[in-house]
Amino acid sequence: MNYNFKQLMQLFNKKMKIPIYYIDAFTDTLFSGNPAAVIFSDINDGDLMQKIAQENNLSETAFIREESGKHFIRWFAPSCEIDLCGHATLASAFVYFNFINKSADEFTVHSKINGQLKVNVGGDLLLLDFPKDTLRKNSMHEEILEVLGVPPIELYEGRDDILAILDNEALVRGIKPDFSLLKNINKRGLIVSAEGSDCDFVSRCFFPSTGVDEDPVTGSAHTTLTPYWSKKLGKKKLHAKQLSERGGVLYCEEKNSRVVIGGKAVNYLQGSIYL
Question: pTM, whole model, 2 decimals?
């Protein structure tokens, strides 16, 4: 059947139109930080969410659904659902404060695994309130040496990831992990960190099992990093940098069983998905 332009537009307009935002998180500059897609809608089909995340092909897509006055959040990488994602939560809060409820100064979401999460406006920062990770010693030194090509001076295991402490910032900047070997480690991924030269600590994060070899900036990893460096440096408030190619800046504070992670965000794109 042949359609004229008017008929094609009528068919096109019958599709479900869903707003989507691309936000660069943990930065105040476009084309840096970690980009996340944010979708506020009533979509609650995990298979459809996964297809959208795969199509977006960003490290994470956040889906926020409102029900009975509460916001529920789910995060998807291109290949799987994620239990916790900091930068996509920060990006979601940025969308909420700037496009959905401009008078609000707090954004509360409920997640399946980690319960209630809050983001507050704190001056020019957005402040994530996340559960603090618990670290235990890890004995996979030989395996991690093979992955990194350099020996970690300390090795820990957290809720989702392995944390490898290296001797200095230059080693963190220069590592080239063997991603094929890293995929065989039975965790979400690997965090590599060292004390910083112009900040308290630096890190890089590698998650090939989720379809993301290196994550540009990883908020959730700082629930693991903050308690380690807080104890190591003897201070509660920490200035952190993630040394990916895009780079990012985070302001972290250990508060009892929680970690507050502050950062900025900028809007890159607003558009629509047609389903």
Answer: 0.90
